[in-house]
Amino acid sequence: MNIFILSRNKNLYSTSRLLEAGQKRGHIIRVIDYMRCYMNITSRKPTVYYGGESLGRPDAVIPRIGASNTFYGTAVVRQFEMMNSYCVNSSVSISNSRDKLRSLQILAKAGINMPVTGFASHTKDIEGVIETVGSIPLIMKLLQGTQGQGIVLAETRKAAESVMSAFRQLDADIMVQEFIKESSGTDIRAFVVGNTVVAAMERTAPDGEFRSNVHRGGRIEKVALTNEEMNIVTEASNILGLSVAGVDLMRSDRGPLILEVNSSPGLQGIESSSNVNVADEIISFIEQKKENLDVQS
After folding, report:
1. 43 has pLDDT over 50
2. Which of 35, 43, 87, 156 falls 20 to 30 Å from 230 in CA-CA distance?
3. CB atoms within 10 A of CB 41
4. pTM of the model
5. What number of H helices and E strands is found in the chain?
6. In the predicted structure, residue 165 carries a pLDDT above the cut 80
């Protein structure tokens, strides 16, 4: 197969692993910087150009779209969809997963268990949001934050009001979420490929920190999921229409709670902690999916 990996940098761990795995399985793999693509948008012959050349129609596309480039990146993915290339994650599913508020609304409508979450635009409504969430302390998140950035633990109402006021002065959207005390600074990243959890790791926050992100010094180790956890993780991924996803969850007294679904999950932490060749799992899934699509056509 001819497979494109849409990535800004071929030397990134996740990109290089996918490139290596695809080549080992005999495919023609090309890394394309999607921000350098430009498009001919016509109904008869949609085209993507890169470095002055027409890229043609690849058999499959693996989008690795950065959070800061979601708008343009998904436009490129959408163009390949118009060319009838198989995109592992669709442009719509990427867009929905990147909008934290929208993704939670979609999951909530489908009945997925999550921490109690509130959202407000005006500082005068902070009291109402706190009442909705129902407890102090609480977590306050910037909707545009990634890798643990833009997340604050407000331990008092006064602190919550101050944080909300500061964020609103920056014209930033903020989401308020209950703090799950029993999680003790840990959460789980499950890696989903198709309808299968291929690997999972537990992330533990360093001393004095409540955020368990690896980029903030969190400790990672392999973890086994229960059947209930595997079911909710794959369901959350499927609801958002993602074939490859990193699903974050917490263990609570009322069962597993979904925190976030990531459409471009990193491979380094999950592969090193689980000893699973996740990149190979992704390429293998693409092979099976493409074979099924060819049979159907």
Report:
1. yes
2. 87
3. 11
4. 0.86
5. 9, 16
6. no
